[in-house]
Write a structure and sequence with these properties.
Blueprint (H helix, E strand, L loop, with lengths): L1 E7 L2 E6 L9 E10 L5 H5 L17 E8 L11 E4 L8 E5 L3 E3 L11 H14 L6 E5 L3 H12 L3 E6 L2 H9 L4 E4 L3 H11 L5 E6 L4 H10 E9 L12 H7 L2 E4 L5 H16 L11 E4 L3 H10 L7 E4 L1
Helix pairs in contact: 2-3, 2-8, 5-6
Length: 317
């Protein structure tokens, strides 16, 4: 099979490697595609701790495709089933996954991409945010994740204030149901505007979906007393400082909405699958850029640089 190998910072080779063989409790997947995650960008940049070359297919973890082979003891999955999976070497034409980390996709999703991990991530963040009708919810950063959360929150009856850097993203937020949009330009102007929109109370929930210091600072300022600040951004490029005086004074709850339990991930994937199959959620317009495997480097660069109109890249095989 063909698989991508990171050979150094910003360097990829497509290599021919042996097909992996499923062990007990595993299935092999013939992949249709894999989403590109912002968490790939730190290894792509080449931090000191990164070791090269990577394993074939490494970093890809948003895969979907067909069951190609079944290991010993696997029940409920058959060769030919179209599935999404939580797997970890999916920048390749084939990958292995634990059978309990695989979900069959219904006929309603036939021919449609389904990067299960980020879709499940959005559902899990929404659940942990405990958003209800009548609440005011600020979402900082309207990319793929922020756009889905805007839709979920607004459909739940919350009043969503979307804050983002790009005019394109603010337009998208309005289409997803945001009641108010604010350009992410001036820190104090944003605080003043949200204070005005909320009568000085600020927001019941604030979801930070960027993964940088400034949006995290801003999120604390926009959270009301006894509100919840939900950290959905990927903060793995270094330590952060927080305004503990403010957080403590307001008595806010801070929720890191990242999951590490594969069972929770898979449950979120199932919930996303049900919503999309029923038509309650349509992420198709959020997959804005598609690349073949041999252009994975371009997909990673676009994910980093976010050209106009970019939200989510898919690599297809």
């Amino acid at each position: 099979m063909r698989a991508a190998v990171l050979t150094g910072p910003g360097q990829i080779q497509i290599q021919a490697v042996a097909l992996p063989e499923p062990g007990p409790g595993q299935v092999r997947l013939r992949l249709e595609g894999c989403g590109v995650c912002a968490s790939n960008l730190t290894p792509w940049a080449g931090p000191e701790w990164m070791q090269y070359p990577t394993e074939p297919g490494a970093l890809g973890h948003e895969a979907w495709g067909f069951v190609d082979a079944v290991g010993e003891g696997v029940e409920g999955l058959s060769v030919g089933d179209r599935v999404a999976a939580l797997s970890y070497q999916s920048y390749a034409e084939y990958d292995l996954a634990a059978a309990d980390a695989v979900i069959p996709l219904p006929d309603a999703l036939a021919g449609r991409p389904f990067p299960g991990e980020p879709l499940g991530c959005a559902m899990n963040i929404f659940r942990r945010s405990e958003i209800e009708a009548g609440q005011t919810v600020a979402i900082i950063g309207i990319g793929f994740l922020g756009a889905i959360l805007t839709k979920l929150a607004s459909d739940a009856g919350a009043r969503v204030i979307a804050i983002s850097r790009r005019p394109f993203s603010l337009d998208l937020a309005r289409r997803m149901g945001a009641a108010e949009t604010i350009p992410m330009e001036d820190h104090h102007a944003i605080i003043d505007r949200v204070k005005e929109l909320t009568g000085g109370a600020f927001c019941d929930r604030v979801i930070e979906a960027v993964g940088k210091q400034w949006p995290l600072d801003l999120a604390g300022e926009l959270t009301r007393e006894r509100g919840k600040l939900i950290v959905a951004g990927y903060h793995q490029d270094g330590p952060r400082q927080v305004n503990m005086w403010l957080w403590n004074w307001r008595g806010i709850d801070v929720i890191n909405a990242h999951e590490r339990d594969s069972r929770v991930y898979v449950q979120g994937m199932r919930e996303a699958m049900d919503m999309i199959a029923s038509g309650r959620l349509d992420p198709s317009t959020l997959y804005t850029h598609t690349y073949p495997l041999d252009r994975l480097g371009e997909a990673l660069d676009a994910t980093r640089d976010r050209p106009d109109g970019f939200l989510k890249a898919l690599v297809t095989y």
